[in-house]
Specification:
Strand content of chain A: 15-25%
Largest interface: A-B, 59 and 58 residues
Number of helices of chain A: 9
Shape of chain B: globular
Number of domains of chain A: 2
CATH topology of the largest domain in chain A: Fumarate Reductase Iron-sulfur Protein, Chain B, domain 2
Number of strands of chain B: 24
Largest sheet of chain A: 5 strands, mixed
CATH class of the largest domain in chain A: Mainly Alpha
Largest sheet of chain B: 6 strands, mixed
Strand content of chain B: 15-25%
Number of helices of chain B: 17
Strand order of the largest sheet of chain A: 2-1-5-3-4
Shape of chain A: elongated
Distance between the termini of chain A: 51 Å
Radius of gyration of chain B: 23 Å
Radius of gyration of chain A: 20 Å
Structural class of chain B: alpha/beta
Oligomer: heterodimer
CATH architecture of the largest domain in chain A: Orthogonal Bundle
CATH superfamily of the largest domain in chain A: Alpha-helical ferredoxin
Helix content of chain B: 25-40%
Number of strands of chain A: 7
Structural class of chain A: alpha+beta
C-alpha cells in the first residue's frame, strides 16, 4: 500500500530553525511499524532525519512520538492502525532539540524527585527473600510496567499548561513504591505528591491512560494516590 | 574542543552488568557510567522469562545441578570453575535483587516464584526443574529498573547519551575512553584508572534478530582495534522462538508454562529430537530441530516458520500425555487466565505485531539471532585476559554479554544471561574499584582523541559512493544464510570473503548529516563499522572450527570432536586480517559426555 508520510523537522544547526514538515510517499506493508518507515526515510531519503530508537518492540521506551496527533511508541504502532496518511511529530511540552528528539532531562529529574527506590533496610535473618503474598504483589503490579517513555506525561493537558507539575509518569512510579508492602517510606513520597506541583494538578483528562503503550491504568493509579492522600490509608 | 574528565572507574554501558558494576564500584571508588542510551533503554530490559538460581522454592533444586546443566548446555566448552562460581553465587545474588526491591512474582508461600526453562533439570530424575526466578514475563525489565533505582539511591554519576568510541591504552594498560556526547557532538576524553566494558552484544549482524538497534558490537570492535582478542566468536545463539519475520523474542517461558512447538502436520516434533525434556531442550537443539522440520517441508504451509502453541487445550493435552504434575502432586492444568497472568507481555506482543491471540491461536515463530556467547575474554572476576596464557591486561574489565568468561561456552541456557549480568557485573565492579585504589592514574597520550577523530572525519569526508544501508543489508543477508543455524565450509568461506569485501566498501560510505547535534547518521555509520568487524571475526572463527558444538553446527563436520576441538578460540583482527589461536577449556568435575536431552 502507498503511505503519505509527513514528518516534523526542526534543526537550527542546519538552518531549519522554524518547524516545518517533509513529505514522503512510500510503499509499505500494513503490518509495518511506523518506526520502519522512519528508518526507511533515514536510510534512503534523508540521513539527517533524527529520532531515538532502540529495542523496536515497545519495551525500551526510546521512541515515544506524536503520530496523527496521539502519543505512541513508533515501534508499537502499525501502519494499519493509523491509516495511510501519517503525520509524525515530537512529543509535546518538552524542548525540541532536533526533529523528534526532545530534551528528556526534566522528565528524569521529575522521576528522581519522588525517591524511586525501595526504602527498607531490614533483611530477613536467614538472608533469603522478604515474604510478600500474591495479593500484596498484585496490588502494585500495574505500575511496575512503566518504561519511562514519557508518552503519558507529554499527553497531559495539566503538564502542558504547567511544567512544574510532576506529571503522570512520576506519580505512576511513586505508586509502584507507595503500594509495595515491603516499602517503609510511603509517607515521604505522599508528602511530595501532596505539594502544589503534585497529584492534585491531575484533572483526570485520561489522556495518559490512552497514551500509555504499556496499558497501565495511569488515571486510576493517580486516583489511588489521591485517595491515599485524602484518607491516609494504603489499601 | 575536546573536553577532559577524570574518574577512577569508568563503566561503559548501563544495562544489567554496567549498573551492577556501577553499584559495587561506586562504593569504593569515584565512578562514572557512560551510556549511549538512557540507562533504562538498555537491552537488559527486554529479557523476559527469568533468572536462573537454585532457590528450591517450589521443589528440590541444587546449585550443583545448575552447574552441571550449564556445563552440559555449553556443550562442554564453558569453563567449569567459572560456571560453578556463577551457579553458587546465583542464590545469594537473586536474594540481593529482592532486597533491592525487585518485584518478583510470588508463590503461595510468598516466596520468589520459579518456572521451568530449557536445559534446567533435576539431575536425578532428568526432568525439568522449577529454577527460573521470574517477575511475570518481564524479568529483565524489573532487573534493569531495580538496578537503575538503586543507582539513583546511591547517587551514581551518569553520563547519559555519551557514546564511547575508543579505549585509550598506554603501555599495555587501559587508561581511559573517548566518547561522543550525542547532544553536542563534542568528543570527551575520560582519564581513568580502570575501564569496565558492559556494552552488550552484536546481534544486529543478522537479519532476523531479537536484538535492539543499539546492539552493534561496539564492545567487540573497539578493543580489537587496540589489539585485544575476542574469544569464541563463532558461537552465537539463535533462539528458537522469535516472532516470524520480525525476530521479536517469545520467551522460552512459554514452553516452561507448557507451550509446545508444532509442525504443519500439527505434530509436536520435539519428542523426536529430545525424547526426555522435549520442548525444553537447549536452544541450539530446538533451533536445529525447527530447521530440519522446515527443510523436510513441515514448516507451516511450507514456509520458514513453525507454530508455538500455548492455548490451554493444547497445554493440557500435552501435560496429560507427559503426566506433568504440580509440586503438590496434583495434575498440571492451566486456564486461559493463568496464561494471560503469567505471560502478559507475550500476549501483548503477539496481539500488536501479529494480530494473534495466543490463548486462542498458535503463534508463528522462527529462530532469531539472540545472544553472543563469545566476546572479550575475561577471568571470573571480570579482568580482561589477552592471550593464550590468559595474561591479565591491567585496568581493563568486561562483564555481561560483551564478555566471554566463559560460562556459556558453545550454547547458553535460558535465564543464565541475566544471572551472568548480575554475578559478573558485581565482580567486575568490585575488582575495578579495588584495582583503582591500589594504582595511580596512567599516562594519557596528548593525542588521546585523535584516533577517534580520524575515524569520524573519514566518514564525514567520504563522497558517499556507497550507502550504509546497502552494506548493512548485504552483511545481514549473507550472515543469516551462511553463518546461521546450520553452516558449511563453502558457505562460511563465502561469507568471510564477503565481509572483507564489505569492510573495503565501507571505507566509501558517506553520510547526509554533517552537523554536530545528535548526528545519529554519523554514529550509526560508525556502528556499522563495528558490526562488520564483528561479522568478519565471527565468520573466520566459524570457518576454522572443523566440528559441530553447541550453536556452531556444521553439515560437513556434524559431530563434536573433543580430541581436537575442546578449546577456546581467540581471534585478533589486524590490518583487515584475522589471526586465530586457541586456549584450553577449564575442566574441573565434569568429564565431557555425549549431550542428549
Amino acid at each position: 500500500m502507498e503511505v503519505n508520510l509527513r514528518i516534523f523537522r526542526y534543526n537550527p544547526e542546519a538552518g531549519r530553525n522554524k518547524p516545518s514538515y517533509d513529505n514522503y510517499t512510500l510503499e509499505a506493508d500494513p503490518t509495518d511499524r511506523v518506526l520502519d518507515l522512519l528508518e526507511l526515510v533515514k536510510s534512503y531519503h534523508d540521513g539527517t532525519l533524527s529520532f531515538r530508537r532502540s529495542c523496536a518492540h515497545g519495551v525500551c521506551g526510546s521512541d515515544a512520538m506524536r503520530i496523527n496527533g496521539r502519543n505512541y511508541l513508533a515501534c508499537k504502532v502499525l501502519v494499519q492502525d493509523v491509516g495511510n496518511n501519517i503525520t509524525v511529530e515530537p512529543i509535546l511540552g518538552m524542548q525540541i532539540i532536533k526533529d523528534m528528539i526532545v530534551d528528556m532531562e526534566p522528565f528524569f529529574e521529575s522521576y528522581r524527585s519522588i525517591s524511586p527506590f525501595l526504602v527498607n533496610d531490614e533483611i530477613p535473618e536467614d538472608g533469603k527473600e522478604r515474604l510478600q503474598t500474591i495479593e500484596q504483589r498484585e496490588r502494585f503490579d500495574d505500575t511496575t510496567k512503566c518504561i519511562l517513555c514519557a508518552a503519558c506525561t507529554t499527553s497531559c493537558p495539566s503538564f502542558w499548561s504547567n511544567d512544574e507539575f510532576v506529571g503522570p509518569a512520576t506519580i505512576v512510579n511513586a505508586h509502584r513504591f507507595i503500594f509495595d508492602s515491603r516499602d517503609t517510606a510511603p509517607e515521604k513520597r505522599l508528602d511530595i505528591l501532596n505539594e502544589e506541583s503534585g497529584a492534585w494538578k491531575c484533572r483526570t483528562a485520561f489522556n495518559c491512560t490512552q497514551a500509555c503503550p504499556r496499558e497501565i491504568h495511569v488515571t486510576q493509579a493517580i486516583a489511588e494516590v489521591k485517595n491515599a492522600l485524602t484518607t491516609g490509608r494504603l489499601d | 574542543m575536546t573536553q577532559h574528565h577524570q574518574h577512577e572507574v569508568v563503566i561503559v554501558g548501563a544495562g544489567g552488568a554496567g549498573l551492577m558494576a556501577a553499584l559495587y564500584a561506586s562504593r569504593g571508588a569515584d565512578t562514572a557510567v557512560l551510556s549511549k542510551l538512557y540507562p533504562t533503554r538498555s537491552h537488559t530490559g527486554t529479557a523476559q522469562g527469568g533468572i536462573g538460581a537454585a532457590l528450591g522454592n517450589l521443589e528440590e533444586d541444587r546449585a550443583d545441578w545448575h552447574t552441571f546443566d550449564t556445563v552440559k548446555g555449553s556443550d562442554y566448552l564453558g569453563d567449569q570453575d567459572a560456571i560453578e562460581f556463577m551457579c553458587q553465587e546465583a542464590v545469594p545474588v537473586v536474594y540481593e535483587l529482592e532486597h533491592m526491591g525487585l518485584p518478583f512474582s510470588r508463590t503461595d508461600e510468598g516466596r520468589i516464584a520459579q518456572r521451568r526453562f530449557g536445559g534446567h533439570t533435576n539431575n536425578e530424575t532428568k526432568q525439568p526443574v522449577l529454577r527460573a526466578a521470574y517477575a511475570a514475563d518481564r524479568t529483565g525489565h524489573m532487573i534493569l529498573q531495580t538496578l537503575y533505582q538503586q543507582c539513583i539511591k546511591n547517587e551514581v554519576n551518569f553520563y547519559d547519551e555519551f557514546q564511547v568510541l575508543d579505549l585509550i591504552v598506554d603501555n599495555g594498560k587501559a587508561v581511559g575512553v573517548v566518547a561522543a556526547e550525542l547532544a553536542t557532538g563534542e568528543l570527551h576524553v575520560f582519564h581513568t584508572k580502570a575501564v569496565v566494558f558492559a556494552t552488550g552484544g552484536h546481534g544486529r549482524v543478522w537479519e532476523v534478530t531479537s536484538n535492539a538497534y543499539a546492539y552493534t558490537g561496539d564492545g567487540v570492535a573497539i578493543p580489537m582495534r587496540k589489539g585485544i582478542p575476542m574469544e569464541d566468536m563463532e558461537f552465537f545463539q539463535f533462539h528458537p522462538t522469535g516472532i516470524a519475520k520480525l525476530g521479536i523474542l517469545i520467551t522460552e517461558g512459554v514452553r516452561g508454562e507448557g507451550g509446545v512447538l508444532l509442525n504443519n502436520d500439527g505434530d509436536r516434533f520435539m519428542d523426536v529430537y529430545a525424547p526426555t525434556v522435549k520442548d525444553l531442550a537447549s536452544r541450539d537443539v530446538v533451533s536445529r530441530a525447527m530447521f530440519l522440520e522446515m527443510r523436510e517441508g513441515r514448516g507451516i504451509n511450507g514456509q520458514r516458520y513453525m507454530h508455538l502453541d500455548v492455548r490451554p487445550e493444547t497445554v493440557n493435552k500435552y501435560a496429560e500425555l507427559d503426566k506433568r504434575i504440580n509440586p503438590d502432586g496434583s495434575e498440571y492444568r492451566v486456564t486461559a487466565e493463568d496464561i494471560l497472568g503469567k505471560l502478559p507481555d507475550i500476549v501483548d506482543f503477539t496481539r500488536t505485531y501479529l494480530g494473534v491471540d495466543p490463548v486462542k491461536q498458535p503463534m508463528p515463530v522462527q529462530p532469531t539471532a539472540h545472544y553472543a556467547m563469545g566476546g572479550i575474554p575475561t577471568t571470573q572476576y571480570g579482568e580482561v585476559v589477552i592471550d593464550t596464557k590468559s595474561t591479565i591486561m591491567p585496568g581493563f574489565y568486561a562483564a555481561g554479554e560483551v564478555a566471554c568468561v566463559s560460562v556459556h561456552g558453545a550454547n547458553r541456557l535460558g535465564t543464565n544471561s541475566l544471572l551472568d549480568l548480575v554475578v559478573f557485573g558485581k565482580q567486575a565492579g568490585l575488582r575495578a574499584a579495588e584495582y583503582a585504589n591500589g594504582t595511580e592514574y596512567g599516562k594519557l597520550p596528548d593525542d588521546a582523541a585523535d584516533f577517534t577523530r580520524q575515524q569520524l572525519d573519514a566518514i564525514l569526508n567520504n563522497k558517499g559512493e556507497e550507502k550504509a544501508a546497502d552494506i548493512a543489508n548485504e552483511m545481514k543477508e549473507t550472515m543469516t544464510d551462511k553463518v546461521g543455524v546450520f553452516r558449511t565450509e563453502e558457505g562460511m568461506a563465502e561469507a568471510f570473503e564477503k565481509m572483507l569485501e564489505l569492510k573495503e566498501r565501507y571505507q566509501h560510505v558517506g553520510v547526509d548529516d554533517h552537523g554536530k547535534v545528535f548526528n545519529t547518521d554519523l554514529l550509526n555509520t560508525w556502528e556499522l563499522g563495528c558490526l562488520i568487524d564483528s561479522a568478519i571475526v565471527t565468520a573466520k572463527c566459524a570457518l576454522d572450527r572443523k566440528e559441530s558444538r553447541g550453536a556452531h553446527a556444521r553439515e560437513d563436520f556434524p559431530k563434536r570432536n573433543d580430541d581436537e576441538w575442546l578449546k577456546h578460540t581467540l581471534a585478533w583482527l589486524k590490518d583487515g586480517k584475522v589471526e586465530v589461536d586457541y586456549k584450553p577449556v577449564k575442566i574441573t568435575k565434569y568429564e565431557p559426555m555425549e549431550r542428549v536431552y
